[in-house]
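Recall the central idea of this unit: under ordinary conditions, the amino acid sequence of a chain determines the structure it adopts. In this exercise we apply that idea directly, starting from the sequence alone.
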Amino acid sequence: MASRSSVNFLDLASGGLLDIPHTPRGLPRVMTVPGIISDLDGYGNNDEDSDVSSSSSRERKIIVANMLPLHAKRDAESGKWCFSLDEDSLLLHLKDGFSSESEFIYVGSLKVDIDPSEQEEVAQKLEDFNCVPTFLPHDLQKKFYLGFCKQQLWPLFHYMLPMCPDHGDRFDRLLWQAYVSANKLFADKVMEVINPDDDYVWVHDYHLMVLPTFLRKRFNRIKLGFFLHSPFPSSEIYRTLPVRDEILRGLLNCDLIGFHTFDYARHFLSCCSRMLGLDYESKRGHIGLDYFGRTVYIKILPVGVHMGRLESVLDLPSTSAKVRELQKQFDGKSVILGIDDMDIFKGISLKLLALEHLLQLHTKMQGHIVLVQIVNPARSSGKDVQEARRETYLTAKRINEVYGSPDYEPVILIDRHVPRYEKSAYYAIADCCIVNAVRDGMNLVPYKYIVCRQGTPTLDAAIGRYAESPRTSMLVVSEFIGCSPSLSGAIRVNPWDIEAVAEALHLAVCLSDSEKQLRHEKHYRYVSTHDVAYWARSFAQDLERACHDHYSKRCWGIGWGLGFRVVSLSPSFRRLSSDHIVSAYKRTNRRAIFLDYDGTVVPETSIIKSPSPEVIDILKTLCSDPKNTVFIVSGRGRKTLSDWLAPCEMLGIAAEHGYFIRWSKTSDWETSHPGADLEWIRIVEPVMKLYTEATDGSSIETKESALVWQYQDADPDFGSCQAKEMLDHLENVLANEPAVVKRGQHIVEVKPQGVTKGLVAEKVLLQMVNSGRPPDFVMCVGDDRSDEDMFESILNTLSSHSLPVPPEIFACTVGRKPSKAKYYLDDAVDVVKMLKGLADATNSKPRYLAQNQVSFESAV
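Accordingly, the structure predicted from this sequence is:
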């Protein structure tokens, strides 16, 4: 039974789940063919021919975020809406990473409610800012942002589980439906302006994690990147989300996914492995996930600050005046600065407790150290925020009462709007900056502090500081924030360890100026070279690289609703049509047929591994035709295969990847390597036992010629880690032995050198050629890596011999995935249907062939 989350949410907004008016539609902004304006509405399942082509030659970047980088207010006299750019917005700052010729279009919602009667007028006004507004109905906006985003995703991504109603809201499917509906409306707006052949789309943050699915469904080859500005939780936390798969698949419909730190990326990759069964690998320094033939790349790079913006504020006269005022106010005191939003994850109360412990432990610091805590307005309201505010005020009051005096307050709490120039002044005079968040995505406060401590020539002149004077700074940062790994000179702390944070603050204040200078210089070099322009430019370059082969492959969409994904494969790779292969089968007389077993004629997921009666009947029919040479080529042992396939007397069997070969039931088993030295088994067995004992869920399969370590039932991450370690271990101990170590899907196998399925195919084909019966029809079907050897061997063997008539070759893999085969079938069920078509062709007279054939339509 399908889960409720698998409902086709692509039609959600127009269905009865939420009453959402159709998005107002002005003139389309894209001409896909000269003189013809294309209607981009709709969500049909598109193959590569349905992607809209455009005559536009200018490359643009479409930036999609929850909020547009705009300020909005009504004019007091006219009552009309007025807009201005938000100069502090990251979305505007990232433009500095590109040339002035680059064009940017912003898609997002406004921070104010716009009456439906004014929306068309506002949309026209925003064209002057290159902004395309997404107008969400008030009720939808509330459920989407304040509901699902802030009450469910945001706490979960910050490691807060709703264990009881008093600690967060539990999953609400209506809020999830609102989230999906809102994402669809954002996608509608992108589709109004996109030139899908040329434009790059860059989606930002957790508000829009299923939007890529809508865009990928409409344009299979869209150039699409996503950057997550929040933490991504570990799989143990993330897996509690009921719609976990839908969100993962939404992100995987991008070409590039960006994270601030390797920890966040590692958690995402672990979730993909544990929940979707996807493996990743490093490709020339870039981490890539193979997702149905598409490579989804992972980018790890923390965002930076806008150096010019910060320095321009430092140059303001108001900043210089404030710096002089603060220097006078705190003369003779060491200033520790904290700037945080008021929420439960910023650790403000923990910071105050650490200061209290410091003053209690180091009494000489009393009267000489001040913590200035600036509290930014809370981004959301709720009981948690109110409790955090109350605790902060009570703690600050207690510290000031116990350790303060009429002319000294150890804690100065600034809980109001603080202008940028004033914040910059506090940064500039602070001896130490502390960021004590218990969980945070990036947090640029330390970067801003470093830049402001460096100062500018204008600020130096205004406050009477020599330009050559050494600059110092000290940072105490939580190890749970995104910027921590890039600040190697900072003192990293566990914010929950009050005593350790107190000692870190004491150390930061008491360090020598020379050490503070060295740490500052190191940090400033990094911050100034890894600014927001560098971050944006690097992401865009990687996105271009990730999309460079979009048009070298065939694409088509599969899956329903939010499970939609695009399969991307070689242009020559196509589905095997039964009409085509049966036709070739009928007109040929010397046929070679090679079949893998597990995953090919028997489903990989089947609990019963023995062949079904239908499979036995089909194989018997094929083998009974004197024109056919049929082989089952498997990694299984010869006893198991001979027992299961005993009714098929004329069937050839290659067991243990070809180490043992039997041409028919009445013939003897041959060994591909007679007299092979298998003494290495004594070396391998104890090593595998060691790893089996240490890896719960793993086991050893003992064959006559090989040993296989299986970890399919082990923890995915631990099993994979152990497999890599075992591979290295065994390669070392078997360096001088006639054995090879291979890693497959959830297995590590050790077998004799020179034993492959490819050699089986080569031996059979050469036998047919040398006996004067060169094949004119060759079919090989398999599903895993070992079968790729057969596909390659067949092509090499037949191309290296001059045959009277070039044979018709059908190399077919099971599943749509990259392969050396030219054809594919979806699963073992399709393979059996195809084989039945061949068996029917063997038994039937020509005039009855048509009704017995099984038709497989091409995917294109």
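The two ends are 30 Å apart (CA to CA).
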